[in-house]
Specification:
Layout: E1 4-8, E2 22-39, E3 50-68, H1 73-84, E4 90-99, E5 104-112, H2 125-134, E6 136-137, E7 140-141, H3 142-155, H4 161-174
Parallel strand pairs: 1-5
Antiparallel strand pairs: 1-3, 2-3, 2-4, 4-5, 6-7
Helix pairs in contact: 2-4, 3-4
């Protein structure tokens, strides 16, 4: 049986929540990380939606790939579907991924459904920052989500210039400095 891999590009990178037997940095092709999903509950409200990450078409995305042992495969898929498909804004896909050791694999990943009402579209840094700056939901302020994501990614050595630009612009709107 082929190896089973899962690709994470946001909180899944540092908080997978499932058993795995290998973890390494990887790059998914054909998709980029973006704040392109409107959040009506966790990081916003229906009146003032926030933004959370999605994989949107175009480019590539550095993240983390997790290899799951065969006996854990079905339990991990079930867990991920419960975690990622709550509102069906994401589509389950097998993505072409390059592992840091040079191997090419297919990895289960979740990409944004552009036809879903929660899809925010392609936003520039300033527009995304204005939304993030004023939004909050049950899981806290949207700006904390973005700052936490950027901090975790930097700790892992994963840089995302666009997302870092959003974080800097939000901090500027708040009158704070970001390293």
């Amino acid at each position: 049986m082929d190896e089973f891999w899962v690709f994470g590009y946001g909180s899944l990178m540092w908080n997978p929540g499932f058993a795995f037997d290998a973890r390494m940095q990887a790059r998914a092709f054909g998709y980029r990380r973006a704040l392109c999903v409107r959040s009506f509950v966790h990081r916003g409200t229906p009146d003032r939606p926030g933004l959370v990450l999605g994989l949107d078409r175009g480019g590539s995305c550095r993240g983390v790939a997790f290899r799951v042992a065969p006996p854990d495969r079905e339990a991990v898929i079930d867990y991920l579907r419960k975690r990622e498909l709550v509102t069906h804004v994401y589509l389950e896909r097998h993505l072409p991924v390059a592992l840091e050791d040079g191997r090419q694999v297919k990895a289960l990943g979740y990409v944004v459904d552009r036809a879903h009402p929660q899809y925010a579209g392609a936003l520039d840094v300033e527009e995304a920052a204005r939304i993030v700056h004023v939004s909050a939901g049950q899981s806290g302020p949207n700006h904390a989500y973005v700052a936490n994501t950027v901090a975790h990614m930097n700790e892992m050595g994963i840089r995302d210039a666009w997302l870092e630009g959003v974080a800097r612009t939000v901090a500027s709107l708040q009158g704070q400095a970001v390293a």
